[in-house]
Amino acid sequence: METHILLISCADEKGLISKISTSIFAFNLNIIVMREFVDPETDSFFMRCELFGEPDKPALVADLKQKLPKQARITLNQKQKKNLVVLATKEYHCLSDLLTRFHFDEINANILAVISNHEFLKPYVEKFEVPFHFISHEGKSKETFENQLTEQVTSYSPDFMVLAKFMRILSPQFVSLFENKIINIHHSFLPAFVGANPYKQAFQRGVKLIGATAHFVNNNLDEGPIISQKVLNVDHTFAVKTMVQAGHEVERAVLVEALNLVLEDRVFVTGNKTIVFA
Amino acid sequence: METHILLISCADEKGLISKISTSIFAFNLNIIVMREFVDPETDSFFMRCELFGEPDKPALVADLKQKLPKQARITLNQKQKKNLVVLATKEYHCLSDLLTRFHFDEINANILAVISNHEFLKPYVEKFEVPFHFISHEGKSKETFENQLTEQVTSYSPDFMVLAKFMRILSPQFVSLFENKIINIHHSFLPAFVGANPYKQAFQRGVKLIGATAHFVNNNLDEGPIISQKVLNVDHTFAVKTMVQAGHEVERAVLVEALNLVLEDRVFVTGNKTIVFA
Amino acid sequence: METHILLISCADEKGLISKISTSIFAFNLNIIVMREFVDPETDSFFMRCELFGEPDKPALVADLKQKLPKQARITLNQKQKKNLVVLATKEYHCLSDLLTRFHFDEINANILAVISNHEFLKPYVEKFEVPFHFISHEGKSKETFENQLTEQVTSYSPDFMVLAKFMRILSPQFVSLFENKIINIHHSFLPAFVGANPYKQAFQRGVKLIGATAHFVNNNLDEGPIISQKVLNVDHTFAVKTMVQAGHEVERAVLVEALNLVLEDRVFVTGNKTIVFA
Amino acid sequence: METHILLISCADEKGLISKISTSIFAFNLNIIVMREFVDPETDSFFMRCELFGEPDKPALVADLKQKLPKQARITLNQKQKKNLVVLATKEYHCLSDLLTRFHFDEINANILAVISNHEFLKPYVEKFEVPFHFISHEGKSKETFENQLTEQVTSYSPDFMVLAKFMRILSPQFVSLFENKIINIHHSFLPAFVGANPYKQAFQRGVKLIGATAHFVNNNLDEGPIISQKVLNVDHTFAVKTMVQAGHEVERAVLVEALNLVLEDRVFVTGNKTIVFA
């Protein structure tokens, strides 16, 4: 017997939990944990269930579809590892954390490949027997570069793409191919210090906390739905360089936190926000 | 229409959520939020629901009682202010925080009275038009003292008693009268530094974090079910005295956090632990 | 014998610590604690010393002035309570915290008066036997309002003015009268969400942390030197209203932290930043 | 020109800072940063200075020795990488973090070798071209095992030995060979849950925070001077196993924090405590 994850989002109406849980019970499944939320702004209902048993998946989904409001989104999948492709540039600190966890089977994912626009990280990645693809952005148009990226990424059919400090801005065309499938770390406590050199901006402003934000990428740079944010204390003794170093710790931590949530299907995207059943 | 809180704990079995939510739906109530937990150690089920509508309370409870496992504990109450009696000695910092929040209606409770074994806090308490009762522990047996306490406390029929730095050890006899109804703050990160002078113990051990713990009181001093814990950083520059002062901040914060959870019926006690639907 | 605080800022040069500490030693004073910082951006030296003994203050300052670079700023004062005037509007949570600490002598300051543009907080303030002055902003020009404020504030000759949720924007003219003497709490993690309704902005952006910032006020609203910042976790269940309530806790905490630093002369302002010898 | 670290500890007396800084100035060195502390319990003085210039080291130390109280401990060394030997058993999470930082030159140390009483981590360690020594504890006396350890460790003459989850209890004989040179991570917020299975103890007690402690090892297990402590929130949904997993994050974080402090000579040991000039 396996654990399955049931995800539902639909318009809210009275009796939804009763309908859903009764359907689950009728299919002889046990609810291990159920979390739900009604968004009062959009009058929408969101639910995540972990189910134990041997579901007749098509029949259960069909039964739910019939009972729930029209246009309900229902997914039912076995709890299993997701497949990731990681994009990086030259910074190693987020990538190394993912590769190490993957190597020791501590993350609920397979890292299928690493793609970078520099060759610097190749020897490190190959220590972990993970394919490394070098796709330079130089001497070609952004469109060509992104077409090459798309081809390489799609060849792996990943569930999610992780930008582990990928320092190229992606076009709306590219992003739209992977809607809510690209996870980025912005090295600031968004929405403070959007754009380039956030640590330099933070230094110049004299803030006493710096942060990092893991978010889904959408068409507006640094403005996608936020999954997780963390901060750490800094003071007047921090130069830009030491802020960058300190920031690595919080970038690493926020990425793995966000990724663990996404990999366990705990994150719904609604509009420009997330609902996180932590 | 009002919000009600439904609390259920019972032996676990398949279909509980279906039975409960279907019963709620049949009574024409809307589930605002539902949280549940199955404790794998005891195979027990715990649920907290906020319901919107006009329930026929006795009928709903009877219906649930009939459908749920025997010895299920079911309570259904309107979401409303709880009544508190606060016991203090001489330290003001937790008491003042409660009185100020009560005064400005920021806490979901009525503070019916303050009882102290010293007169020091009387003028302060009376600023807030809250009755202050001085019951000295001096020149009398512990039994007499506790009988006088019991009489005074029970005259107010409070839902909970808060030990806001009440520096007398209560006997098992007294505690048993108010099972899971007494909330204490221990000024350490339990189970470190149980007993007297925890800040002195912390200083001597050279710890780098100090903490505070809000817990229900049971017969074993400092060993009741923990509701909430918080810590703060200290370093070698902290003397015992400055640890005590710094500790006030975290004691205050942990008490109000725990109390808000208890006042909103978010805390179940099971054995010597709590389940907190935060 | 008393403790004195010596504060020095000047251009950096080799041998400053030697000159200063030798001068202190020659005056037969004991250094309890010394902290210094050289700002590499401006090549400036900052020092805070706590001295124990009975200094001939004018002679020590004269001796230091002669030895240190020209235009060195030197202050030497007995460690003692500072005088505060608090400005508030209708929100009580920061003000009540200050008044309670003042009442129980837990803050290193005298609160000489509270000034508000509303009468709402009057009964509460007067419980603490602190003068309350109501100065309405209605039916008069900003200039007239600020002149009345200035008159009332200066009648108390405070060391610092605390804006404990004072919801009026002060003009550059007013601010310039009290340079680096006005401490404000902005209810966001600056520089995110400057301006009005930061919690609403935070809600709309779907952030996972909200914060508060204590800063000195300068001519550009919300852009003065930051003293202290704190954050707390929020999630999708927080409405604007619950964010505001949760924010009260962090606003209170950040104000008292910043104020304690300022009251102990631990904060230097340099340009638009602070140096904090915590 | 190089940066040097000057460390001094001695009996306290008036004028120490003047004497030391004047001596430094006479040797034409610039103080980049100076931190000092007087421990009121032992009347001892501790100082750490970063000095810039080209010191005549023996002459400066001799000059200081002559001016400071007898038995003053003075060290003056160029700021440079320390040498580490890491002991591990089977858990990878602390070791991998150290190796990755070493590989990318992010930690101020050389990892000379890894020694383990199991072979499990060998392939991983060798990816980083770091020598791996397998010394089994099985089938031999503790004395023999520790003699073999000692021989292997001392062959590298490391500055510090890091127990990165080394799950064997070391004898007082072994520890005394490396006084204040062995850094351990205990997987609890000491002094809570000393001894074996701290996460199981934490689970059974129902705590709401778990922690980790980095400390120097002395003769009493888990009782050496604490360098750093960190905690994270847990709740009723955490089983022992998930506490262990969550604990890995905080163990990793606390070790690297403590190690960075030690590697920059920021930690003095005095009695059973540390003074940390962070």
Structure description:
In chain A, helix 3 runs parallel beside helix 8 (240-263) and helix 7 (198-205) packs across helix 8. The longest helix of chain A is centred in the last third of the chain and has 24 residues, at 240-263. A seven-stranded mixed sheet of chain A has the order 7-6-5-8-9-10-11, sandwiched between helices. Chain A has a four-stranded antiparallel sheet with strand order 2-3-1-4, with helices on one face. In chain A, strands 12-13 form a two-stranded antiparallel sheet. The first copy, chain A, has eight helices and 13 strands. The mean pLDDT of chain A is 95. Chain A is of the alpha/beta class and 278 residues long. Chain A is globular, with a radius of gyration of 21 Å. Chain A has two domains: 2-78, 2-Layer Sandwich (Alpha-Beta Plaits); 82-276, Rossmann fold (3-Layer(aba) Sandwich). Chains in contact: A-B, A-C, A-D, B-C, B-D, C-D. The B-D interface holds B 37, 39-40, 189-193, 205-209, 211, 225-231, 235-237, 239, 272-276, 278 and D 37, 39-40, 189-193, 205-209, 211, 225-231, 235-237, 239, 272-276, 278.
What is the helix content of chain A? 25-40%
N- and C-termini, Cα separation of chain A = 24 Å
Radius of gyration computed on alpha carbons of chain A? 21 Å
Total DSSP E strands of chain A:
13
Biggest interface: chains and residue counts? A-C, 31 and 31 residues
CA-based shape of chain A: globular
Number of helices of chain A: 8
Give the name of the CATH superfamily of the largest domain in chain A.
Answer: Formyl transferase, N-terminal domain
Mean of pLDDT of chain A: 95
The CATH architecture of the largest domain in chain A can be given as 3-Layer(aba) Sandwich
CATH first level of the largest domain in chain A: Alpha Beta
Strand content of chain A: 25-35%
